Structure formats: C-alpha cells, structure tokens
C-alpha cells in the first residue's frame, strides 16, 4: 500500500444548524400529516353556526399560545371576510389591564374564566390553545365555558393533558415539543381562515 493509498478521505461533517433545520421540518411534516380534514370541516361548521346565531369566538392561551390567539383573532376578524361579514371574535389575553387586574385580585388561574363569566353566553365558542393542556387558567376557562353551555374546542400538544377529555372537540398532536405544538395552532388557524373565507365569500 502506498502512502497515497493509505490516506482516507474524511466524510463531510453535518452542520448542526442544517441538521436541526431538517429535523424540525421533518417532525412538523409528520405531525401535521395527522390532521384530519373532516375534523377541520366540523369546526368550520360549528363556527358558521355560531356566526349565524350571533355568537362570539373566544380564544385563549399562555405565552406563545397567547400570541397565537391574538394573531388568529385578527385573521378571523378581517381575513375571513375583508368586507366586514366576518366572525365576532376576541382573544382573552389581549388586554393587559384586564389580565393584571384579574391576576392580582382573583388569581392567574381565573384570568380567562372570569372574562367568560362576564361576557360570554351559550351561543359562543371557546377555542383554547395549549401545549400541555394542563395550565390552570385553561382548565378553568373550559369549565366556565361548560357552565355557560358554550361549545369548547382545543388545539393541544404533548399528551393532551387535563384539557383533552373536557373539550367538545380536540385537535391533539402527541408531540413532546412546545414549538411544534405552537406551530400546529397557527397552521390550523390559517386553514380555518381560508376555509371560512371560502364559505363566506363563495359558499
């Protein structure tokens, strides 16, 4: 064996950021492949019935899920019908004055439930966004909605938590990753927006 023959060409190294990116995209794709179009259709029907009955869609979540709730409230207010025949919708995490008042006076677990107690009624729908499904304020919101006779829906990750069995309809993605869980919230929200736009403008 010559000296030249003994030299082994090193394998190209895999950049960790490239690897992370590819892994993340692959995981998100696998998770979203479990989304049931018939379940989305069912929720679209629920929201259209709510609208026809003069109801309001309330959204809530914590952290990134709170931001997603506010984002989707915008989409459902304008995006589904730019001419004005959209949904009545409110993100319960949007008013910092209300949140800090309720958190300070009656506890963080009640920041969403109390707002529902004051404002909501049976023809309304609650959509909760939660990675774990175990946050106290999410559970209390669902319980308050049930007491009012509201329809309850959730987009959940991990094992679905305490929220999953309480909901009338649950979109559950069994992924142990908070960022992927939050991505599913926006993706479903955007599909709903497009579906509602289609129904309200061309139905």
Could you characterize what this model shows?
There is one protein chain. With 203 residues, the protein is of the alpha/beta class. The chain is built from 7 helices and 5 strands. The chain has helices at residues 16-32, 37-52, 64-79, 96-106, 113-119, 136-148, 178-202; strands spanning 56-60, 88-91, 125-130, 151-156, 169-172. A 5-stranded parallel β-sheet has the order 2-1-3-4-5, with helices on both faces. The longest helix is centred in the last third of the chain and has 25 residues, at 178-202. It is globular and about 75 Å long. The N and C termini lie far apart (76 Å). This is D-sedoheptulose 7-phosphate isomerase. Keywords: Isomerase. Residues 47-202 form the SIS domain. It comes from Pseudoalteromonas piscicida. InterPro entries: GmhA/DiaA, SIS_dom, SIS_dom_sf, SIS_GmhA/DiaA_subfam.
What keywords describe this structure?
alpha/beta, 203 residues, 5-stranded parallel sheet
Draw up the topology in text.
Layout: H1 16-32, H2 37-52, E1 56-60, H3 64-79, E2 88-91, H4 96-106, H5 113-119, E3 125-130, H6 136-148, E4 151-156, E5 169-172, H7 178-202
Parallel strand pairs: 1-2, 1-3, 3-4, 4-5
Helix pairs in contact: 2-7, 3-7, 5-6
Spell out the helices and strands N to C: HHEHEHHEHEEH
> Major β-sheet, in short?
5 strands, parallel
Mean pLDDT: 95
| Number of DSSP E strands | 5
Number of helices: 7
The strands making up the biggest β-sheet line up spatially as 2-1-3-4-5
Kindly, what is the distance between the CA atoms of the first and last residues, rounded to a whole number of angstroms? 76 Å
